[in-house]
Design goal:
Elements lengths: L3 H6 L4 H13 L1 E3 L7 E12 L15 H13 L4 H5 L8 H11 L5 H10 L1 H7 L7 H6 L3 E3 L9 E3 L6 H11 L7 E3 L15 E9 L2 E12 L3 H19 L3 E15 L3 H8 L8 E4 L14 E4 L14
Parallel strand pairs: 7-8
Antiparallel strand pairs: 1-2, 2-8, 3-4, 5-6, 6-7, 9-10
């Protein structure tokens, strides 16, 4: 058993590596939607301190944190077209619309050519670049409906132009009622899942205030531990820090809960290489200035210091 003193001295990344080792050794081999296959467990919890500007960037491989930050800022716009991401050189969402385009048209277009068409042709982007009502669309514009023929036996509903802005409501409730147990952002809109290119993996965020600090809990229904996790914990931590600043609070802790936590069978080289490395260092993230609202941050507001990761480990994305 690891005692409390040993836990305190353990590098924050070791819990991630231990989870990776456990899944690779004992995980159940399962078929999955992508056809690749995984080793999987059900249920995991990791905790990361955000005190003193701490940020849980993995150090056993390079995490491209600017890409993750741009993605989080995109979520907060409520937009859902990959064109907005490609214009800032973020390509992590291209695989899904590309696969849809190839399947629908029979084209074997290269990814780079597809992305260039999305950037250069707005009409093409509108038709082929939209992901459906994913993440940000639910965060800041959860659909609301009004009845057009109240009193009729067969009611007709119309979708309102502006839905529920969960993010603004969250910040308002944190400021007015910090002890509430209802500080939640939810992305799992059952009525619209079939319209999404990919149903939300990091689906539920809950926030908690104590002793002047804001902590956040992220429940992730599905976690690609080899690739996606590094972005997920950075993005969630960044969101906590942004909200904390807006509410005049310090950052406390990120608690990460995973449902189906898995490693893809074709990630063996990644797993073995990463498990051979030793984590080190304690990177910091500082926010420069205080934007007027949660929606006014830009990449220039974020500075990462003392981050000296080992080299990047590439692996295929399962679509």
């Amino acid at each position: 058993m690891i005692n409390n003193e040993e836990k305190k001295s353990m590098h924050y990344e070791q819990q991630y590596l231990d989870l990776m080792q456990h899944i690779w050794t004992f995980g159940a081999i399962k078929e999955d939607r992508t056809g690749v296959g995984t080793k999987s467990i059900f249920g995991a919890t990791l905790r990361f301190s955000l005190d003193n500007d701490a940020i849980p960037l993995l150090t056993t491989k390079r995490v491209f944190w600017k890409t993750a930050a741009k993605e989080m800022l995109w979520f907060l716009t409520g937009k859902t077209n990959i064109r907005d991401l490609l214009l800032v050189n973020v390509r992590i969402w291209s695989d899904w619309p590309l696969a849809h385009y190839r399947k629908t048209t029979g084209s074997d277009i290269a990814q780079k050519d597809f992305e260039n068409k999305i950037i250069d042709d707005e009409e093409f982007a509108l038709k082929w670049g939209d992901l459906g009502p994913v993440y940000g669309a639910q965060w800041v514009n959860w659909p609301r409906y009004e009845m057009l023929n109240e009193g009729d036996a067969d009611p007709i509903y119309k979708k309102r132009e502006q839905g529920v802005d969960q993010v603004s409501l969250l910040i308002d409730s944190l400021q007015k009622s910090p002890s509430s147990r209802r500080h939640i952002i939810e992305g799992w809109n059952v009525a619209e899942l079939d319209q999404m290119a990919l149903p939300p993996c990091h689906k539920t965020y809950q926030f908690y205030v104590a002793d002047g600090k804001l902590s956040g809990l992220l429940y992730q229904r599905s976690c690609d531990l080899g690739l996606g996790f590094a972005f997920n914990i950075f993005s969630a931590s960044l969101l906590i820090k942004m909200i904390a600043q807006q509410c005049g609070l310090e950052s406390g802790e990120l608690i990460w809960n995973g449902g189906d936590v898995h490693l893809y069978l074709n990630h063996e080289a990644l797993v073995e290489e990463q498990l051979s490395r030793v984590p080190s260092g304690n990177p910091k993230l500082k926010i420069i200035g205080k934007p007027d609202s949660i929606f006014d941050y830009s990449l220039e507001n974020f500075v990462v210091e003392e981050y000296q990761p080992q080299k990047h480990i590439s692996a295929p994305v399962a679509v």
